[in-house]
Design goal:
Oligomer: single chain
Strand content: 25-35%
Helix content: 25-40%
Shape: globular
Largest sheet: 4 strands, antiparallel
Radius of gyration: 15 Å
CATH topology of the largest domain: Aminopeptidase
Number of strands: 7
CATH class of the largest domain: Alpha Beta
Number of helices: 4
Number of domains: 2
Order of helices and strands: EHHEEEHEHEE
Distance between the termini: 38 Å
Protein backbone atom coordinates (compact mmCIF):
# COMPACT_ATOMS: atom_id res chain seq x y z
CA UNK A 1 0.00 0.00 0.00
CA UNK A 2 1.16 3.50 -0.80
CA UNK A 3 -0.23 6.80 0.44
CA UNK A 4 0.05 9.81 -1.83
CA UNK A 5 -1.59 13.16 -2.51
CA UNK A 6 -4.83 13.03 -4.46
CA UNK A 7 -4.61 13.61 -8.23
CA UNK A 8 -7.08 14.68 -10.88
CA UNK A 9 -7.52 11.07 -12.05
CA UNK A 10 -8.82 10.23 -8.54
CA UNK A 11 -11.75 12.64 -8.97
CA UNK A 12 -14.43 10.07 -9.96
CA UNK A 13 -13.60 7.73 -7.04
CA UNK A 14 -13.40 10.60 -4.55
CA UNK A 15 -16.72 12.09 -5.71
CA UNK A 16 -18.33 8.67 -5.30
CA UNK A 17 -16.91 8.11 -1.78
CA UNK A 18 -16.83 11.63 -0.28
CA UNK A 19 -19.90 13.62 0.80
CA UNK A 20 -18.59 16.78 -0.89
CA UNK A 21 -19.65 18.14 -4.28
CA UNK A 22 -17.63 17.42 -7.41
CA UNK A 23 -16.63 21.08 -7.52
CA UNK A 24 -15.33 20.94 -3.93
CA UNK A 25 -13.49 17.66 -4.48
CA UNK A 26 -11.80 19.14 -7.56
CA UNK A 27 -10.83 22.24 -5.60
CA UNK A 28 -9.36 20.14 -2.78
CA UNK A 29 -7.36 18.06 -5.26
CA UNK A 30 -6.04 21.25 -6.86
CA UNK A 31 -4.86 22.55 -3.47
CA UNK A 32 -3.31 19.24 -2.35
CA UNK A 33 -5.88 18.66 0.40
CA UNK A 34 -6.43 14.94 -0.24
CA UNK A 35 -4.30 11.95 0.67
CA UNK A 36 -5.29 8.63 -0.86
CA UNK A 37 -4.17 5.13 -0.02
CA UNK A 38 -3.87 2.73 -2.93
CA UNK A 39 -2.70 -0.75 -3.66
CA UNK A 40 -2.22 -2.25 -7.10
CA UNK A 41 -3.91 0.79 -8.65
CA UNK A 42 -7.02 0.50 -6.45
CA UNK A 43 -7.89 3.33 -4.06
CA UNK A 44 -8.49 1.98 -0.55
CA UNK A 45 -9.47 5.19 1.27
CA UNK A 46 -8.84 8.90 1.60
CA UNK A 47 -8.14 11.69 4.05
CA UNK A 48 -9.32 15.23 3.23
CA UNK A 49 -8.08 18.22 5.20
CA UNK A 50 -8.27 21.98 5.30
CA UNK A 51 -6.79 24.65 7.54
CA UNK A 52 -8.75 25.90 10.53
CA UNK A 53 -8.52 29.71 10.56
CA UNK A 54 -6.33 29.30 7.48
CA UNK A 55 -3.52 28.03 9.71
CA UNK A 56 -4.08 24.82 11.73
CA UNK A 57 -4.30 21.60 9.67
CA UNK A 58 -7.80 20.22 10.24
CA UNK A 59 -8.75 16.68 9.20
CA UNK A 60 -12.18 17.20 7.61
CA UNK A 61 -12.80 13.59 6.68
CA UNK A 62 -11.08 10.24 6.74
CA UNK A 63 -12.97 7.49 5.01
CA UNK A 64 -12.17 3.86 4.37
CA UNK A 65 -14.88 1.64 2.85
CA UNK A 66 -16.19 -0.98 5.34
CA UNK A 67 -14.50 -3.85 3.48
CA UNK A 68 -11.10 -2.18 4.06
CA UNK A 69 -11.59 -0.99 7.63
CA UNK A 70 -9.37 -2.37 10.40
CA UNK A 71 -6.61 -3.19 7.89
CA UNK A 72 -4.33 -0.23 8.66
CA UNK A 73 -5.51 1.98 5.79
CA UNK A 74 -6.84 4.76 8.03
CA UNK A 75 -3.75 4.71 10.20
CA UNK A 76 -1.48 4.88 7.13
CA UNK A 77 -3.46 7.84 5.79
CA UNK A 78 -3.29 9.61 9.13
CA UNK A 79 0.47 9.06 9.55
CA UNK A 80 1.21 10.30 6.00
CA UNK A 81 -0.86 13.44 6.64
CA UNK A 82 0.74 14.01 10.05
CA UNK A 83 4.26 13.70 8.58
CA UNK A 84 3.40 16.09 5.75
CA UNK A 85 2.04 18.64 8.22
CA UNK A 86 5.14 18.32 10.43
CA UNK A 87 7.28 18.83 7.31
CA UNK A 88 5.20 21.95 6.56
CA UNK A 89 6.04 23.30 10.03
CA UNK A 90 2.63 22.85 11.65
CA UNK A 91 2.56 22.80 15.45
CA UNK A 92 -0.87 21.27 15.96
CA UNK A 93 -3.43 19.12 14.17
CA UNK A 94 -7.18 19.40 14.65
CA UNK A 95 -10.09 17.11 13.98
CA UNK A 96 -13.59 16.52 15.30
CA UNK A 97 -16.48 14.09 15.51
CA UNK A 98 -20.02 14.09 16.74
CA UNK A 99 -20.38 13.71 20.51
CA UNK A 100 -22.37 10.50 20.05
CA UNK A 101 -19.71 8.82 17.86
CA UNK A 102 -17.72 6.77 20.37
CA UNK A 103 -15.69 4.75 17.85
CA UNK A 104 -14.28 7.75 15.91
CA UNK A 105 -13.46 9.48 19.21
CA UNK A 106 -11.57 6.39 20.40
CA UNK A 107 -9.64 6.36 17.09
CA UNK A 108 -8.67 10.04 17.55
CA UNK A 109 -7.48 9.37 21.09
CA UNK A 110 -5.47 6.29 20.03
CA UNK A 111 -3.72 8.54 17.52
CA UNK A 112 -2.70 11.10 20.13
CA UNK A 113 -5.53 13.64 19.98
CA UNK A 114 -6.97 15.21 23.12
CA UNK A 115 -10.47 16.65 23.47
CA UNK A 116 -10.41 20.45 23.31
CA UNK A 117 -14.07 21.47 23.52
CA UNK A 118 -17.38 21.15 21.74
CA UNK A 119 -20.02 23.17 19.97
CA UNK A 120 -23.73 22.46 19.63
CA UNK A 121 -24.53 22.20 15.93
CA UNK A 122 -27.85 20.41 16.29
CA UNK A 123 -29.41 22.58 13.61
CA UNK A 124 -27.37 20.48 11.14
CA UNK A 125 -26.61 17.24 13.06
CA UNK A 126 -28.14 15.24 15.91
CA UNK A 127 -25.47 15.80 18.58
CA UNK A 128 -22.78 18.37 19.45
CA UNK A 129 -19.40 18.31 17.69
CA UNK A 130 -16.36 17.57 19.86
CA UNK A 131 -13.03 19.00 18.70
CA UNK A 132 -9.65 17.33 19.18
CA UNK A 133 -6.11 18.77 19.09
CA UNK A 134 -2.76 17.00 18.73
CA UNK A 135 0.49 18.81 19.48
CA UNK A 136 3.08 17.85 16.83
CA UNK A 137 5.84 20.47 16.93
CA UNK A 138 8.20 18.51 19.19
CA UNK A 139 8.43 21.46 21.58
CA UNK A 140 6.96 20.98 25.04
CA UNK A 141 3.41 22.20 25.43
CA UNK A 142 2.89 24.66 28.28
Amino acid sequence: MIVRRGRSEDLPWLVEHDDASEHWVGRCIQYGEYFVAEQDGEILGFLRFSRFWGKIPYMDMIRVPPSRQRTGVGTALFHAWEKAMIDDGAQHLMTSSEWAEAEPQAWHRRNGFKAAGSIDLRIVQPSPEIFFIKHISGESEE
